[in-house]
Amino acid sequence: MNTNSELSEEMETLEWVSFPMKERPGATVALIAIMLVSAFAASVMMGNIWWGIIGLALLFLSMWSYFLPVEFIMDSTGVRKKSPFGTEIRKWGEVRSIIPDANGVLLSPFKEPTRLAKFRGLGIQFSGNREEVLEFIRARTES
Prior knowledge:
alpha+beta, three-stranded antiparallel sheet, disordered N terminus
């Protein structure tokens, strides 16, 4: 009989696509409504529709990881995060701590929690596979 750690070691690669917009339709409708109302308000208050369009574009860009699919590939060497904006790679040896939350986990290069972790670390989004991903990461890091 295999234990959880043995199961993690047997999995050579873990791959999935995270697409929160598709996975959480209720939140997506609410988010789009808020963005459209904000864009309309900006247009009305500034007296020009272009302010609303620019505001809507900036809101979309700030939320790109919610609206666009992101592919994650974990293997024995590290993690790859492929998005329309490029690929980020983090080797397991660079990960000093893991910081999980409800929607994902942050792979931090710092031993202790710090504000810089969000900028220097790599954010991984779950897609209904929270326990599997955390088990895979914990089996390969010292955290």
